[in-house]
Every structure is written in C-alpha cells, then in structure tokens.
Amino acid sequence: MRAPVPAQVKPGQSIRDFETAASGLQLWLWASDPLDSAAAGLIDRETHFKDAGRTMAIPQLLVHDKKDTVGVVVIEGLKKGTDMLCVVTHDNSSFKLKSKMDVPIGHKVALVDIKKGDTIWKYGQDIGIAKKSIGKGEHVHVHNVKTKRW
Question: What is the pLDDT of residues 26-85, one digit of tens each?
C-alpha cells in the first residue's frame, strides 16, 4: 500500500494540514515548515513524506487531546504488531504504540489499559464506557464500547 498523497498542496501551505486524496481524512503532521511547490506531492515508500529534501514519518494514529484514552487510525490496513507513530494534535507531540490487532482506518485504538466500566475519552470528550476490559494497543469500537446516552 502506498502512503496517502496530498489532494491539493499550494505554495506556502503548511504540511501540518492536508487532505488525503484517497479517503478525505485530514492528517495532521507535526512539521511547521511550509511546503514549497517543488516538493508538493512527493511520497517516499509507505510511511514517509519528503519536504524539500527532508523525510518525515507519516503518523498512523492521531490523538486529539492529552487526556484521551483512544486514538484514531489514519492509514489503510493497519496490521497487528505495527509500531505506530502517534501524534497528539493539540500540541504536536508524538509517541510510539504497538498495535495488538489489525484495525481499520477511522477506528480507534486504546492508548492505555481500559477496565470494564471505565470512561472512554476521545477529542477530550467522554464518548462512552467500556463494555469489557480493553488492553493498550487493542481495537476500540462498538464491540467493546457503549454510549452512556442509552
């Protein structure tokens, strides 16, 4: 699988915020340098983006807030055992986390061990409770999370 290619990159636009051509998901890279037109759209293998001669890793998981207990997969075909690059969009910090299972794009991964009944945090918001215990690096979705609304 190839890395996502920016849909449109204009001179002076930051690589921090671009749309992927294939899925329309926004990827937030922690780089702050503007992407010049000469480097627009250059992708290196599956996980790196070339920016004016520098190569930067593309994150596999985005976390929106430091207090989140889950992050969102932003690549197609995330496989069990992947040592994911995770980026916290609130402050552009990054960390590594190993995926314990295959997880589809747009689904969540536990950042910490979550016990049955614990609140799940995403976007800095309470999004529900764990229906069963979820291990760090495991898939988090409707099979193990329930809304508190009903």
Answer: 343 333 333 332 333 444 434 555 555 555 678 999 999 999 999 999 999 999 999 999
Same-domain pairing of 83 and 133: yes
36 and 74 part of one domain: no
Question: Are 69 and 112 in a shared domain?
Answer: yes
The answer to whether the pTM exceeds 0.85 is no
What's the CATH number where 67 sits? 2.30.130.110
3-state DSSP of the chain: CCCCCECCCCCCCECCEEEECCCCCEEECCCCCECCHHHCCCEECCCEEEECCEEEECCCEEECCCCCCEEEECCCCECCCCEEEEEECCCCEEEEEECCCCECCCCEEECCCECCCCEEEECCEEEEEECCCECCCCEECCCCEECCCC
